Automatic annotation (TrEMBL):
InterPro entries membership: Carbohydrate_kinase_pred_CS, CARKD, Nnr, Ribokinase-like, YjeF_N_dom, YjeF_N_dom_sf
Protein's UniProt name: Bifunctional NAD(P)H-hydrate repair enzyme
GO MF term set: ADP-dependent NAD(P)H-hydrate dehydratase activity; ATP binding; kinase activity; metal ion binding; NAD(P)HX epimerase activity
Alphabetized PROSITE patterns for the sequence: YJEF_C_2, YJEF_C_3, YJEF_N
Function: Catalyzes the dehydration of the S-form of NAD(P)HX at the expense of ADP, which is converted to AMP. Together with NAD(P)HX epimerase, which catalyzes the epimerization of the S- and R-forms, the enzyme allows the repair of both epimers of NAD(P)HX, a damaged form of NAD(P)H that is a result of enzymatic or heat-dependent hydration. Catalyzes the epimerization of the S- and R-forms of NAD(P)HX, a damaged form of NAD(P)H that is a result of enzymatic or heat-dependent hydration. This is a prerequisite for the S-specific NAD(P)H-hydrate dehydratase to allow the repair of both epimers of NAD(P)HX.
Binding positions (K(+)): N65, D125, T162
Domain YjeF N-terminal, chain residue ranges per copy: 18-216
CC cofactor note: Binds 1 potassium ion per subunit.
EC number: 4.2.1.136, 5.1.99.6
Any one biological process term the GO annotation gives: nicotinamide nucleotide metabolic process
Gene name for this UniProt entry: nnrE
Length: 488
């Protein structure tokens, strides 16, 4: 059993692949073995996270997730714990492995209680796993979820927090909020995006003795984003070795967005950073960042630089988008560049043409921007973030970063990646502009669109994860912190 190590490129498997893996694994083993191994793994982790727990409630559901809970109860009782087992299943209708576990529970002399009573030192949520359907839990199931959440005890969820969907990270209104989740056989993508991060707590995985070739025979659904490898700056290098970035944005009243993106590109190691403002104010210097060079947009040579376009762009970005899209420059399209493209068929055709000639392009929408591009609502995007990001990447044939909790990086040529870094402290104005600048810096240094997006998104989130507790975290401070993680 392993704690999920942050920064490792773990494969993630959805429900369909997990079921196929489970079938292959089960066929090679005596009947009920996998569930017995699952129960033992749950019991072991229970001891590890709550070694002094005496009274343990194991809430078991009607399917095989419940069976895992019954198996765990047998071990915990054997190890001297007082187990309280409640079960929503029936021997006549439960799956075969679970019926076998129920009989073993009986043989061990453990009674199934109709209701949990008293206080508990640990709750084990074995109500629903990958068989969970996105319908609101009712009756006893809903009552027990609420009781688990209100118990005040550590909560260990078996395979998934009940109510969370394994593929999407969408949760029913009533769902378990675990302190630990033990994934069985495979890590599931839904734990790392949308509501998954909040529901799952610390994620563990036990592959139940699975042969590696069974796991690797199927392509995963996605990967967890890996920590980027740091590269040293060669001694014999100069500013031209690290590329130029031009930030186009900052319409009237939104200059700050362009400056944030430009500052982020600078601190992430770009050789030279230019700013083309979309307002008629004659800003010629940013005194905090005198390295930035301000230029009229028409004077910028897009053929020789990476362009980050749209940060604080407003509608004013529209007239320059045609030139940006038709240029050979690697381009990051953010914020209002995306909003304008979403409403303009001509620009959409330009974007498609650009991607067809394989000009490097990264779109960095938040869920509402993605929804506008897809003609959906933000809620629809959030209900299946992996699919939304992949659909956008396919539609425009380029790299897409769907931002938010568990940002998704998708491209037509790669399996999608879910980013494990970042936290709610990033949810403040301007942090997306900082990300756009960081992606621009990676492109200017010669990375592909997908690599640049993966590296920048990881670093951006890691900055927030290592930020001193209690210290304010604003977009501008994030810019300044960017030099800590820049590779070059
Ligand atoms: N069979 C085996 O050998 C193994 C099974 N495993 C466990 O089995 C789980 C999958 O088991 P199942 O396929 O039986 O699925 P689950 O046990 O996750 O759920 C299926 C049951 O829950 C009910 N249900 C689904 N959604 C509901 C909702 N919203 N409200 C109320 N009831 C709902 C279904 O009608 C069905 O009875 C895994 O998550 C894992 O915990 C693992 O232990 C690996 C080995
Ligand atoms: N809860 C969270 N966990 C991880 N990252 C987050 C979270 N909330 C916001 N972020 C990140 O913060 C940034 C916000 O970007 P965006 O919504 O475009 O804001 P703005 O337009 O104000 O800059 C994105 O990179 C997003 O992924
Ligand atoms: K569960």
């Amino acid at each position: 059993m392993n704690k999920t190590i942050p920064g490792t490129r773990h494969p993630l498997h959805g429900v369909d692949q997990t079921r196929r893996i489970e079938q292959t694994a089960a066929q090679a083993l005596p009947a009920h073995t996998l569930m017995q191994r699952a129960g033992l793994a749950v019991a072991r982790l229970a001891l590890a996270i709550a070694p002094h727990a005496q009274r343990i409630w194991i809430a078991c559901g009607p399917g095989n997730n419940g069976g895992d809970g019954l198996e765990a109860a047998i071990h915990l009782q054997r190890w001297g714990k007082q187990v309280v087992v409640t079960w929503l299943g029936q021997t006549e209708s439960a799956p075969a492995d679970t019926v076998a576990a129920r009989l073993r529970l009986q043989d061990a002399g453990i009674l199934v209680e109709s209701m949990p009573s008293g206080d508990f030192d640990l709750c084990i949520d074995a109500l629903l796993g990958i068989g969970s359907q996105l319908r609101e839990p009712q009756g006893l199931m809903a009552d027990w979820i609420r009781q688990i959440n209100a118990s005040g005890a550590p909560i260990l969820s078996v395979d998934l927090p009940t109510g969370l969907h394994a593929d999407t990270g969408q949760a029913t209104a009533v769902h378990v909020q675990a302190s630990h989740t033990l994934n069985l056989l495979t890590l599931k993508p839904g734990l790392f995006t949308a509501q998954g991060r909040d529901a799952a707590g610390t994620v563990w995985c036990d592959t139940l003795g699975l042969e590696l070739n069974v796991l690797t025979a199927l392509a995963p659904t996605a990967y967890l984003n890996a920590q980027p490898i740091k590269t040293r700056r060669p001694h014999a290098s100069h500013k031209g070795s690290y590329g130029d970035v031009a930030v186009i944005g900052g319409a009237h009243g939104m200059t700050g967005a362009a400056l944030l993106a430009a500052g982020a590109a600078l601190y992430a190691g770009t050789g030279r950073v230019f700013v083309g403002l979309l307002n008629d104010q004659s800003v010629t210097v940013d005194v905090r960042h005198p390295e930035l060079m301000f230029r009229p947009i028409q004077s910028l040579d897009f053929s020789a630089m990476t362009v980050v376009c749209g940060c604080g762009g407003g509608q004013a970005v529209q007239p320059v988008l045609c030139d940006v899209l038709s240029s050979p420059a690697p381009v990051v399209l953010d914020a209002d560049a995306l909003n304008v493209i979403a409403t303009d068929n001509v620009l959409q055709t330009e974007l498609l043409a650009r991607c067809a000639r394989q000009a490097v392009t990264v779109l960095t929408p938040h869920p509402l921007e993605a929804a506008r591009l897809l003609g959906q609502t933000a809620q629809q995007v959030q209900s299946d973030r992996l699919t939304a990001a992949q659909t956008l990447a396919q539609r425009f044939a380029c790299t897409v970063v769907l931002k938010g909790s568990g940002s998704i990086i998708a491209s037509p040529d790669h399996l999608p990646v879910i980013n494990p870094t970042g936290n709610g402290r990033l949810a403040s104005a301007g942090t997306g502009d900082v990300l756009a600048g960081m992606v621009g810096a990676e492109l200017a240094a010669g990375k592909t669109g997908f690599e640049a997006a993966c590296r920048a998104v990881y670093r951006h989130g890691a900055l927030a994860d290592t930020w001193p507790p209690g210290a304010p975290l604003t977009a501008q401070l994030l810019v300044l912190g960017g030099c800590d993680t820049a590779c070059r």
